[in-house]
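U., I forgot to send this yesterday:
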Amino acid sequence: MEYKNSNWDVETGESYWNRTKQYVKEVTEWTNAMTKPLPEHVVQLLLQGAQDQVKANEIAEWFANPTKAYEAFISTTTIH
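Result:
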C-alpha cells in the first residue's frame, strides 16, 4: 500500500521482493518436492492422516498455508 500511487520502479520491485521472497522460496521448493517421489517422513505423515482426523486436517492446512508444507517436506521439523 505504501507505493499504491507511485509508478512501478526499482524501489517498488525491491521492496515487494524483500517482503515476499521467503514465501516464494518455500512455495517453490514445496512444489518441486511434490513432483518427485515423496520423502519417507511425508509418506508416513500421509498414512497417519488416513487414520487420524487431526493429522489429516494439519496436512490439509499445507494447501492453505504452504509454509507449513515447506516445514513438513523440507525442514527437519514435522507437523505436531
